Amino acid sequence: MVYPSKAAESIVIHAREVCKHEDSLRKVLEQVSLPSDLFTDSRQQGKVAYETDELVRAFLYQHVRGLSQNELASRLLGRVSILKRLGFTDPPSQQVLNTVWNDAFDVDTREIIKTAAQGIRKEALDHNVVDELLLPTRSTDEDEKGELTKEEAKLQRAQKLIQLARQYILPVIDSGRADNQQYSDEQIIDIFTKMCSQQGSANAEGEYAKLTGDDAVCSGATILRTFKLIATPSEEDAQLGLSDFHRTMEKI
Questions:
Q1: Are 121 and 64 in contact (CB under 8 A)?
Q2: How far is the C-alpha of 65 from the C-alpha of 241, rounded, in Å?
Q3: Residues 2, 37: contact at Cβ < 8 Å?
Q4: Residue 128 dihedral angles phi and psi, to the nearest 5°
Q5: CB-based contacts of 31: which residues, under 8 Å, 6+ apart?
Q6: How far apart, in whole angstroms, are the C-alpha atoms of residue 1 and residue 163?
Q7: Distance separating alpha carbons of residues 159 and 198, to the nearest angstrom
Q8: Burial status of residue 219 (CB atoms within 10 A of its CB: 0-12, 13-18, 19 or more)
Q9: Cβ atoms of 134 and 166 closer than 8 Å
Q10: How far is the CA of 9 from the CAs of 21, 31, 125, 147, in angstroms?
Q11: Which pLDDT tens digit goes with each residue over 155-196?
């Protein structure tokens, strides 16, 4: 007899190896090896529209990301890249997901998936597999219990966005401004990230700071000027536009 914890551990061990050379949760879940013979699926396999393995990968994705089943169904419906990576040709409905999880999968299978998802999330974090994984989202329990208010969820998203900006944007950008500027690139990125998370504007941030006497926030003109410098390569005279990226993609 193989205990659920051991089966989950085997999934996590392989996921760890995949995380060493992949940078996307979708790719990790696509490639991770599953002990299919240890899953119990009571559906008649010759008549099912969705295979056990692809559903297991979808539920792993759900629990790693902390999604509700409804959110999982919406994501599979709206994002073809996720759908294909998990092995589907067409998206299962929320009703199908619910029936499989609660009726077709036994307790041990559900436990394997939940335990493995926790381990995969840890490995993905340890190996800087970011992609969608680190984007802010409420956990399944919080969704079901309604513990987060809209304001709390908004604050949580803003905090995570700022954390990601500091970790992944700051190390690779440089506005080229003098080091003795009143506001550092890091401060301006924090302001810009907060502004984006609240669907605000540079001018609104600057005006609010002026009204409240908040010296930690620079003017809207400074924010926009800094990001224009960031978006202008050192060897160019003008800021890049969408057409520049389009031409680059045509060559790839």
A1: yes
A2: 34
A3: no
A4: 60, 35
A5: 18, 22
A6: 44
A7: 11
A8: middle
A9: no
A10: 20, 16, 17, 31
A11: 666 666 666 766 666 666 666 776 667 777 777 777 777 677
